[in-house]
Amino acid sequence: TGNQPASDCLFCKIVAGELPADVVASTERIVAFRDIDPKAPVHVLVVPREHHGDVSVLAAADPELLAEVVEVADRVAHDLADGQYRFIFNSGPRAGQSVFHVHGHVIAGAQLGWSPA
Ligand code: 5GP
Ligand code: ZN
């Protein structure tokens, strides 16, 4: 099912501690770690420990967990930056999704431009 660890999933391996990551926040259900290729001074990925493919699947399966993802994102933005931030889900390859384990991008720490495409 969507809740089982996917053996070939990069973020399941990070959640399991099988691959290293620079973790900045952690709860029972969520891990947040720095993006390996940051697009801003603060660029953190907020990742539910459970495997769900994208935010659309997560929203349908567990809206409370999605709400907790947003709470952790907000806390990270206040802890690591000034609390002003963008929170982005890429959902689907055409939207730029490349890792198919749901994650939100916290982008902060700079004046941000806006060029989504
Ligand atoms: P997406 O394009 O799926 O929305 O975002 C995937 C993000 O994961 C990208 O910003 C990429 O830089 C990041 N990423 C890919 N591989 C790794 C990794 O091994 N470790 C970390 N920390 N980030 C990764
Ligand atoms: Zn996964």
UniProtKB/TrEMBL annotation:
<feature type="domain" description="HIT">
    <location>
        <begin position="10"/>
        <end position="117"/>
    </location>
</feature>
<dbReference type="Pfam" id="PF01230">
    <property type="entry name" value="HIT"/>
</dbReference>
<dbReference type="InterPro" id="IPR036265">
    <property type="entry name" value="HIT-like_sf"/>
</dbReference>
<feature type="short sequence motif" description="Histidine triad motif">
    <location>
        <begin position="101"/>
        <end position="105"/>
    </location>
</feature>
<dbReference type="InterPro" id="IPR001310">
    <property type="entry name" value="Histidine_triad_HIT"/>
</dbReference>
<protein>
    <submittedName>
        <fullName>Histidine triad nucleotide-binding protein</fullName>
    </submittedName>
</protein>
<dbReference type="InterPro" id="IPR011146">
    <property type="entry name" value="HIT-like"/>
</dbReference>
